[in-house]
Every structure is written in C-alpha cells, then in structure tokens.
Amino acid sequence: MSDYKLLINGALVDGDDSFDVINPATEQTVAVSPRASIAQADAAIAAAKAAFPGWSQTPFAERSALLNQLADTMMANAEELARVLTQEQGKPLAEAMQEIGFTEAFIRHLASIELQPEVLFDTDDRWVEKRHSPLGVVVAIAPWNFPLLIFTFKLAAALITGNTVVGKPSPTTPLTALKMAEFCKAIFPAGVVNVVTDLNDLGPHLTSHPDVAKVSFTGSTATGKKVMASAADSLKRITLELGGNDAAIVLDDADIDALIEPLFNYAFMNCGQVCLAIKRIYVPERLYEKLVAGLSALAAAVKVGNGLEEGVQIGPLQNAMQYQKVREYLADARQHGEVVAGGEVPEGPGFFITPAIVSGLADGHRLVDEEQFGPLLPVVRYSDLDQVIEAINAGPNGLAGSIWSADLERAKALAYRIHTGTLWINHHLDFGPHIPFAGAKQSGIGVEFSEEGLKEFTQLQVVNLAR
Ligand code: NAD
Fold it and tell me: For this protein, what is any one GO molecular function term (predicted)?
C-alpha cells in the first residue's frame, strides 16, 4: 500500500499498483506512490466530465475564493511540503521554499483574473459580443524540475476559467502533486480536480481521450511532439511548454565584474534543470578569460550536497536518467573542450555532478547546440556578433535568452532580432503570473500565464445579434 493517494471523483484512493519514489541525493526510497491504471485514469476523466457543468456555472468569485483557500492550505503546510519537495526533487530546502512561494503567487494572481466579455458593436441594427467560455476537461501534465509549481499553475489556470482537471505529475516527482490532491479534496467539489500518477505510461491515453478538451503540457520537446500527434485526432486544444537552450550574450561594453555572479546563478539554479536557465554564454574575445576565471571561482566555491543539509546551494540531478545524460554531455565536453572548474562526479550514493565551467567549445559542439539540462555551462568566445545571432536563430529552440550590455538601446535593437518567446536585458529568469510566457519554434506552442495564458483555457465565442 502506498503512503500517498490518488484523487478521483472527490475520493482519495489507492492506485491499482504502486512504485517507489527515489530521493536523488541518497538513492533511498522517500515514499511509495500510487500508480493509476488505465481504468483509474478513465474514472478520473469521467469524474471531471461529470463535474464540468456545475463547475463551469459556479460564479467566478466562488472559484477564485476556493483557489485562494488552496493557497492558504498549501502555505499552512509549507514546511512539510518543502521537505517533501527537497526529498523527491533534490533541490535545496531554501529553493523548495522559494518554489512554494512562487506557487502561492501564481495561484493567487491567476485566481484574480476574470476574462470579461467585450461588446464589439452596439448599434441600431446589431449587437456583437466576444466572450470566453470554458472548454471542459483539461489534462495537465507536469515535468520533474518544478513539480509543485508547474503542476499547480496549470491547475489554477484551468480551474479559474471554469474547466475541470485531471492532473498528472512526473513519475520521479509525484509526491508534492499528491499532497496538493489531498488539499484539493477538502476544498473543491467532487470531480473538479483529479490527480493520477503513472510510470510514464498514461500520457498517451490521457492526451488522446475523446472526453478531454485540452492538454496543457510542460516537458521535453520530444514528448511534446508526441502529445501534439496524439491530440490531433480529436483536434484538442494544446499548450506545449518545451525545452530551451537559452543563450546569454555578453556585449563588449558590459561591466564584466558585475555580471559574473548573476550569470552563474541563472545557469546553475536548481542544478541547471530549469527550462529558462542560461545554457550557454557568448562572450567577446577581450572579456573571455576574465569571465571564465570568475565563473570558475564561483563554481569551485559552491556547496553541493543533500538539499536537506544546512548551507547546501546545489543539489543532485533529479533522476538516474538525467544524471546519465548529463554525464554523457560532460564526457563529450572533456573530449572537445576543457572543463576549467567543477565537473566532478563524486562516488555514490546520489546523482551528484559539481557545477562545471567549460571553455573551448563553439557552435556545432553538442553542449553548445543542445539542451543539457544540468550543471554544465559552456562559455563560447566570439568576435562577430552577427554570427552569434545567426547561430542562435538557426537552432531549433526559441524559449528565451538574455543580452548583457551597458547600452540599453543597443541591447533592445539586438533583442528584436532574436527568435525567442522571451528576451531579457541585463537579467534572466524574471518571470511571473502577470507576464505572458511562450516558446518560439520547437520550444512550444501557445502561451501561459497572464490574461493571454488564461484565454488558452477557453473557447472564444462571438454572439452576433441582428436588431
Ligand atoms: P518529459 O517530456 O520526459 O516528461 C514530462 C511529462 O510528460 C511527465 O509527466 C511524463 O510522465 C509525461 N509523458 C511522458 N511520455 C508522455 C507521452 N507520450 N504523452 C504524454 N505525456 C507523457 O520531460 P521531463 O524530463 O520531465 O522534463 C524536462 C524537460 O522539460 C526539459 O526539456 C525542459 O526544458 C522541459 N521543461 C520546459 C518548461 C517550459 O516551460 N518550457 C518548463 C520545465 C521543463
């Protein structure tokens, strides 16, 4: 029997099967998770479908109040939740608390946005109104890097717009989502929120189910493509937030001493496992050695370890597969470039790799061209800025990026030339529920957050009346 329960039709139930959740810092079992069968996934979808008419008619103010109640309950349990998050995901406790704080901000802000109808014409002969109605059952699929935040903001966006939900966390980090399921049971009417877990096998069933109206998916680009194909048959609405290979471009006028610390932090937060993390830095020849030396000094000083221990700044890779993948990137980087600092792989247990600063690589090398999603940072020298922009735009990803310069107008003009959904100037990773977030090219389809993101959970309807 598992320590956690699924939420199906207002009841907390055991899965038809179960599996161990592994703490990546110790490789020990943290807890036993339920595993839902296809029949349980079907029951969750049926419950969400049955709850939809009532929930979609529930006044906005009531939906908003219940979401705020969820935020209250989560915050009342924040310390326990943070420990669970650190143990299942690996991130240091302080980062786990930060994720909980973000989650609260997302719930409360999204719960404050009411999509208002708009009258487009009101004349003698006609009246035309534009309005947004909910879609029905939303399937929300989350990855393992921010298992609480991503799972919950999808839930909040779907619910505030009047949809019902079947949520599915990642198999390696299901526990915080199952905790939220427990909180939701006491707050929402039966069937409005359902949470199922799997071993990477329920996705195709959920995303192709005829009773599901929309899929909100965050994960890898490869899986995103499968979701899109699987949703095609019934033309489901989809939002895909996928992988990225964010570049930070340092311009020749930048104050390099002031940049070293922020660049390091934006690259290595959550052990580099952030879709929006800096994944490569381009720097002019003249500033190259100084930047590499500065980043290397920080890498050498950072404390890596079990996120539950005091003072630890960087935890392990989240799971064995990712650990293996990042080790392959590391081996490739050693072969073609130089690991100037870090890149140590301590003897087990735990999926640890110390943050590595890699020099001597260029476009065309794997670590520069691909999403490493781990604590390896290539620093690439350049002499021609146009070539850098060309190389970035030629890649398949387009999530975000940043430009670092003392000349804001110059930086802005460059920003407009880069094909990404977000481009920061003199910072990175600044996002929130009030700022729309979208991936360009193979980094995604659609928008999340803000009013624009919420609209994706609705059907635009025009009511056009002749007088
Ligand atoms: P993943 O694609 O392996 O898994 C994501 C989720 O999809 C999991 O819940 C998984 O069980 C589920 N899944 C697996 N196969 C499926 C299928 N065929 N159909 C439907 N669902 C399926 O991704 P991951 O390894 O958990 O996460 C890391 C990736 O996520 C990275 O590429 C990262 O850049 C990306 N990511 C993107 C964002 C963003 O907002 N753009 C945010 C976080 C992570």
Answer: betaine-aldehyde dehydrogenase (NAD+) activity
Domain contains 438: no
* Claim to verify: residue 283 and residue 348 sit in the same structural domain: yes
Q: What is the DSSP string of 100-167?
A: HHHHHHHHHHHTT-----EEEEE-SSEEEEEEEEE-SEEEEE--SSSHHHHHHHHHHHHHHTT-EEEE
Torsion 240-171-400-110 (CA) sign: positive
Its domain, for residue 376, covers 247-432
172 ligand 1 Cβ < 6 A: no
CA geometry: angle 241, 242, 247, nearest 5 deg:
115
If one residue of 275, 321, 325, 429 were mutated to test the ligand 1 pocket, choosing by the most ligand atoms within 8 A of its CB, it would be: 275
CB of residue 149 inside a 6 A radius of ligand 1: no
User: Are 135 and 233 contained in the same domain?
Assistant: yes
Q: Which residues are within 8 A (CB) of 321 and not within 5 positions of it... i.e. 6 or more apart? A: none
State whether 352 and 224 are in the same domain: no
Same domain? 256 vs 196: no
> In total, how many domains does the chain have?
2
Distances in whole angstroms, Cα of residue 357 to Cα of each of 281, 293, 377: 10, 9, 5
The answer on 327 and 234 residing in a single domain is no
Task: Say how far apart CA 332 and CA 336 lie, in whole Å.
Answer: 6
Cis previous bond, 189, omega within 30: no
CATH of the domain at 137: 3.40.605.10
- 3-class SS shares of the chain: helix, strand, coil, % to 5: 40, 20, 35
Centre of ligand 1 to C-alpha 228, Å, is 13
**pLDDT, tens digit, for every residue of 274-322?**
999 999 999 999 999 999 999 999 999 999 999 999 999 999 999 999 9
Q: Which whole-number Å values give the CA distances from 459 to 89, 130, 418, in the listed order?
A: 35, 10, 31
Judgement on whether residues 156 and 274 belong to the same structural domain of the protein: no
Which is the closest atom of ligand 1 to the Cα of 146?
43
Ligand 1 atom 8 nearest Cα:
170
Based on its alpha-carbon atoms, the radius of gyration of the chain, rounded to whole angstroms, reads 23
- Helix, coil or strand: residue 339: strand
Q: pLDDT, tens digit, for every residue of 442-463?
A: 999 999 999 999 999 999 999 9
